[in-house]
Amino acid sequence: DNVEIWLDGSNTGRTTPDILTNISIGPHTFILKLYGYNDTTGSITVIGGAISYIYAVMVPIAPTVGGISITSTPPGADIYIDGVPQLDINDQPIRTPATISNLTPGTHDITLKLSGYEDFTKSVNIIAGITIYLDTILTPIPITIGNINFTTIPDNVEIWLDGSNTGRTTP
Length: 171
Known about the structure:
Elements (H helix, E strand, L loop, with lengths): L3 E4 L2 E6 L10 E8 L6 E7 L19 E8 L4 E4 L2 E2 L12 E6 L2 E8 L6 E7 L4 E7 L20 E4 L2 E6 L2
Parallel strand pairs: 5-11
Antiparallel strand pairs: 1-2, 1-3, 3-4, 5-8, 6-7, 6-9, 9-10, 12-13
């Protein structure tokens, strides 16, 4: 219901279900329009004193894009799709959790980047009309360095480490 009725190329301002009255006899073309559906077009001949009937099943427009909903633990990771950083309308990075729509169907590489964590990358297959869900746990970057505090009596002793002079003295 509420499908726009167009007759002979002009919008009648009416929607289905409805009966158009006082239509001149003879052949006419019609278009039925509804957002998200393919237009239904056809022709009909109006016969004097009779009612002509049009029954139409509107066909949804096939989706041409898909989407992905991404979460991460911890949240706040920058999202890259096929190496391109995703930005909002203010050119700010889109961060997890987020849903990215309007992706072309096919395989895309999703990368999440968060300071202190290893980059996460996964290939996903986007399907038109479907939102894929990706939930990730980011891995902390291992700490591979530490500190050594030297204190001596007396002060100003050269500090050598692994056979090399560090150029520093105590404390």
